């Protein structure tokens, strides 16, 4: 079934007589088309979109609400954060005004949790992706570089839904929205690049080392608690605070909080370090996959 869809979508010839879109006439676009990895991803894109849609629909198959849970789950998470920490526990952060302070900690928490959920879910699922999709990897000529994109796209949809509900909550409590919100997609793009780059290497290793999936799950749990997501940075010792500038998860979370809560640009040095780490991981992942791809397909 999947193979038939792949050939139908990917092998379909373009219609004659239609002018090329404006972006296809750009020189940069023409050069990027010649990069083998990008050509492989582009050829597999229709299949990736199909897998993304299938994942969103089937992840809640059998439940009463079905795909509606994709919308309900982020809403419930936000409601729980607000009700538990603002209304029941009365957790507060000062400095945002008397009317906002009672919700400030919930806003602080949601900023971090939405980013972390997308980060951890994407990385955890990509790690075992080649094994989970072994029927595609072995039977369909799909690019292994393209497969992780289906996971990232799925988690992006869930993240966007969560952000929409988050914006609704901010408007409800009269929290000011600034123009810095327009930079959030750039931060999220860096997040996706990091997850994609690291995920490729982990997915390759998971084919040969059976314990990688469990190790990644444990590391993500530890990573969550050593990152100031549910607590504030100021409670940590000074030397730990200094080391946080090298923690990729904290760099991401702090960048979101700078744009949303502090309404200012994040510190560019940590963000630059994060981007360099992501590029380095991407290079390692491409090299590792290039060296093992043929053997990897046989092992599956």
TrEMBL record:
Pfam families: ABC2_membrane (PF01061). One of its GO terms (molecular function) is ABC-type transporter activity. Keywords: Cell membrane, Membrane, Polysaccharide transport, Sugar transport, Transmembrane, Transmembrane helix, Transport. The keyword Ubl conjugation does not apply. GO terms for cellular component: plasma membrane. Residues 65-292 form the ABC transmembrane type-2 domain. It is found in: Cell inner membrane; Cell membrane. The chain crosses the membrane at residues 69-91, 103-123, 144-173, 179-208, 215-233, 268-290. It comes from the Bacteria. One of its GO terms (biological process) is polysaccharide transport. It is a multi-pass membrane protein. InterPro entries: ABC2_TM, ABC2_TM_bact-type. Belongs to the ABC-2 integral membrane protein family. PANTHER family: CAPSULE POLYSACCHARIDE EXPORT INNER-MEMBRANE PROTEIN CTRC, INNER MEMBRANE TRANSPORT PERMEASE. This is Transport permease protein. The gene is abcT3.
């Amino acid at each position: 079934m999947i193979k038939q869809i792949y050939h139908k979508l990917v092998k379909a010839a373009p219609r004659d007589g239609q002018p090329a879109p404006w972006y296809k006439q750009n020189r940069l676009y023409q050069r990027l088309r010649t990069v083998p990895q990008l050509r492989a991803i582009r050829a597999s894109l229709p299949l990736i979109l199909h897998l993304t849609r299938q994942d969103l629909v089937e992840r809640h198959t059998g439940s009463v609400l079905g795909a509606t849970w994709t919308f309900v789950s982020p809403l419930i998470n936000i409601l729980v954060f607000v009700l538990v920490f603002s209304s029941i526990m009365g957790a507060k952060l000062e400095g945002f005004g008397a009317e906002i302070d009672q919700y400030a900690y919930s806003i602080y928490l949601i900023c971090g949790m939405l980013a972390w959920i997308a980060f951890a879910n994407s990385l955890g699922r990509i790690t075992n992706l080649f094994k989970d999709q072994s029927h595609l990897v072995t039977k369909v000529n799909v690019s292994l570089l393209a497969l992780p994109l289906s996971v990232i796209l799925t988690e992006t949809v869930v993240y966007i839904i969560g952000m929409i509900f988050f914006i609704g909550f901010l408007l409800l409590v009269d929290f000011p929205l600034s123009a810095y919100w327009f930079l959030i997609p750039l931060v999220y793009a860096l997040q996706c690049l990091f997850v994609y780059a690291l995920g490729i290497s982990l997915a390759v290793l998971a084919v040969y080392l059976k314990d990688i999936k469990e190790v990644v799950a444990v590391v993500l749990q530890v990573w969550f608690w050593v990152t100031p997501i549910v607590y504030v940075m100021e409670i940590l010792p000074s030397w730990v605070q200094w080391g946080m500038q090298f923690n990729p998860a904290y760099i991401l979370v702090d960048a979101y909080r700078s744009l949303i809560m502090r309404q200012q640009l994040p510190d560019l040095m940590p963000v630059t370090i994060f981007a360099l780490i992501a590029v380095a991981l991407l290079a390692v992942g491409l090299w590792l996959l290039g060296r093992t791809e043929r053997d990897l397909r046989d092992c599956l």
